[in-house]
Design goal:
The protein is of the alpha/beta class. The protein has eleven helices and 13 strands. Helix 10 crosses helix 11.
Length: 290
Amino acid sequence: MKVKKAVIPAAGLGTRFLPATKVVPKELLPIVDKPSIQYIMEEVASAGIEEVILITGREKGSIEDHFDTSIELENHLIKKGRRDLLKVVREISGMVTLVSVRQKEPLGLGHAILCAKKVVGNEPFAVLLGDDLIDAKVPCIRQMMDVYQNMDGALVAIQKVPRAETHLYGIIKGKKVMDRVYSVDEMVEKPERGKAPSNLAIIGRYILPPRIFDILEKVKPDRRGEIQLTDGLKELNREVSIYGYEFIGDRYDAGDKFGFLQANLSFGLKHPEIGLKLKRLLKELSSSHR
């Protein structure tokens, strides 16, 4: 069954980036000259997904505004003769069909996805987490959609991480069933150091069957009162097969200060306007700190 809808949770408070996120949603913090969430939307659009369900919270209306039509700005650019920028602005508002759903309380990723139940309906759907930026020739979610066409159940994106960092991720235990695809036997959320079943970490891309909604409705909240997606996936795995796909591409954790800087440097070096200048600057900085 074709994946036509994507859910993007964007209701988090962004506390790791305070004070920058006191007023500005973390999803709108720029990676070079584009908000981080625009990279996610571009991945969705490039994959041919028709509709995005954006899960938002309080004070997140500016995210919706970014993807809306801005008549005043467009008229200003027309008057100034800036057809180049006008094209950019119009492409943003025409990227996807956007539906916004409010998550009234920050009750975890599983709860955020559950908020999309009525809009998604009875069909498989993609989930993309805004903190995970993936730079790939073929969009990561497109790679996953191509794999998903030949299977039932659910598909999660995975990536090999250093053993010393496995305690920071959800880790799968499974066996390789084809090139870059693993059958998942078990998922362990942030295992204790030295006790991870593998170094295959779950990254923020999923393709899920609609059955996950009924399961999430019954998942017990954790100690913090949050409904976790991993708990729902464990229950789903008792009913259907879950597979892990080792995607091709470079991933940056834009929800982490260092990862955010990594993304800015990586995308900046590829940017046609500043790439060469940034490369020279990095060389100068490297020389001056020796």
